[in-house]
Design a protein that fits this description.
With 131 residues, the chain is of the alpha+beta class. It is built from three helices and five strands, in the order ββαβββαα. The protein folds into two domains: 55 residues, no CATH class; 67 residues. Helices cover 52% and strands 12% of the residues. The relative contact order is 0.18.
């Protein structure tokens, strides 16, 4: 989850330097007195503008999902290589089970990670402090 704010001076979005699960914990755990815009370098005081901080999907989950699919592809390669070069006779059911398992596990993990991140983003963006 990536936090950002819209600069009141230049109107551009700048990344927020801290992370938290909601705005209240963000205000309690961090000093929000001097945070500057990445584009115009204007220093903003967020004590009274906590609701202007928004959350969106970050790159971390995308990288994890990409790595899972790369590992899955490598796993498929070695699984099929072992299946075709082995002298043992494998049943077609075992072959299909392995192929499906290698494909389904990364997809399931990716969907779970996406749901968790979407819930965090929804919680952060919907919880207003009134400031």
């Amino acid at each position: 989850m990536r936090l950002y704010f819209k600069c009141s001076d230049c109107g551009n979005e700048s990344p927020f330097p801290y992370s938290a699960n909601d705005r209240v914990s963000l205000a309690q755990e961090h000093n929000l007195q001097k945070i500057s815009c990445q584009h115009c370098s204007k220093v903003s005081n967020f004590d009274y503008k906590l609701d202007s901080i928004k959350a969106e999907k970050g790159k971390t989950n995308k990288i994890i999902i990409l790595l899972l699919f790369v590992i899955s592809i490598v796993g498929e390669y070695f699984y099929f290589k072992t299946y075709y070069r082995s002298d043992l006779e494998y049943s077609m059911q075992g072959f299909m089970f392995g192929a499906i398992l290698i494909l389904i596990v990364p997809v399931a993990i990716a969907s779970i990670l996406n749901k968790i991140e979407e819930k965090k983003i929804r919680t952060f963006n919907n919880y207003r402090t009134g400031h």
